[in-house]
Amino acid sequence: MDPLLPFVPHVAIFPFPAQGHVNSMLKLAQLLSLSNFHISFLVTIDTHDRLLNHTDVMSRFSSEFHLQALPHGISMDEINTRDGVSKLYDSLNTIAKPFLREFLVNSPVTCVIADGILSMAADVAEEINLPIIYFRTISACAFWSYFCIPALIQAGELPLKENAMDLTVTKVKGMEDFLRGRDLPSFCRASDLTSPDFRLLMTETQQTARARGLILNTFEDLEGPILSQIRTVCPNIYTIGAVHALLKARLATKSTSSNSLWQEDESCMSWLDMHPPKSVIYVSFGSIAGVTKEDLLEFWYGLVNSEQKFLWVMRPDLIIGQEEKCQIPVELEQGTKERGYMADWVPQEKVLAHTAIGGFLTHSGWNSTLESIVEGVPMICWPRFADQQVNSRFVSEVWKMGLDIKDTCDRDIIGKSIRDLMEKRIGEFLQRAEHMASLGKRAVNEGGSSYVNLDRLIQDIRLMIPPMRQS
Ligand code: UDX
What we know:
- By secondary structure, the protein is α/β, with parallel strands linked by helices.
- The protein contains 18 helices and 13 strands.
- The strands form two sheets. It has a seven-stranded parallel beta sheet with strand order 3-2-1-4-5-6-7, with helices on both faces. Strands 10-9-8-11-12-13 form a six-stranded parallel beta sheet, with helices on both faces.
- β9, α12 and β10 (340-343) form a beta-alpha-beta unit.
- The longest helix has 22 residues, at 84-105.
- Uridine-5'-diphosphate-xylopyranose binds next to α1, α13 and α14.
């Protein structure tokens, strides 16, 4: 580092290697680059190659941007298996951690922004005396319920007792009136609280205060009361969400480049163009969750029987344990031809912004939820795992912009929920959704809470001057 040249912050950004995490952290990278920061973005080889193949990532940065692949041997392939989370962390600890240390020691990085579930990055940063900030890519409400797990255990509310799924839990402060056993993060359903996956997810969250600050992809008007609770244990929070909307606002553009790890099928956009406003329900279960063949058929019947138009993301790996092609009943083939459109992977942000979309049947991943909130699209939530159980409860009970059908999978309930969302109760849900969307827009525009918090984050990183520059 030449002490005579003006100081330019260089930030190493290290996301957990999954689509939702990479997406929001790459948007932050772009936002920081607009302030001319240099960025090193560390990803697994698989993500590295997918980003190069399916996106224009290398051409969208105005300042120095380096997409750094981690060594071979870290993969998300087994994440849905028993102890899959622990296996992934083993490889992160044995392969990514030493690599990160070596990388940081030999680079001009001045600050690390690591995913808030990668405490190995905090170990390294502390060891070599580099400032670290965490970015937790889930909602504040999910983060806070993860954080309160030790209190739930101490109070005897975990492990969940038989028949406790529908009882409210008392030890997640600020949610006592509405958070039931079934709304806790999915891994709280484990009967064995000593399982490695459970311990790991709990202890990662407990370590948040090690970082100098916590970035959250949410906004104050959406989760203010819960953020106040989090501030009692992590006072320095930067709420900069919805980060994709903040990027659009800063670039003054209607849409930004996608960070998709799969090839997007743009043809669905022309199909949407043929439909009137708010007439299509969009269906997607995110990037990781699998669905059994039985559940898939219930959804399919529910959709076809609802007689609404639908656009459905059918990821090639969506059906669990499906080696051979599944036999589709004729009535479903026919109903899909008449009213549906299926794609392997779509440009979701653009889809949700399309006037034809009137509802979103979602797994309640946090990116999907925020993208829907910002576009004012009411939701039907069918959460699968982790934070999704909490998000869906907030959609239905706190923000009141949709229905939560967790733990059911029945064609009649699905069909009725779709008709309720798209027809019968459309007025009530739309009014709430449009209100939340306007608050979301206000947050990212000049003077809004997320706009101001990003500026504060940028300022704080600028002040992290390495010791050799401080004289
Ligand atoms: C999961 C969690 O549920 C999420 O809350 C957590 O933060 C990360 O792990 P995922 O299943 O990927 O995430 O869901 P989500 O957070 O909703 O992210 C999916 C992303 O993929 C969204 O940004 C969405 O726009 C994008 N997507 C999805 C597409 O671009 N095209 C598609 O066809 C489907």
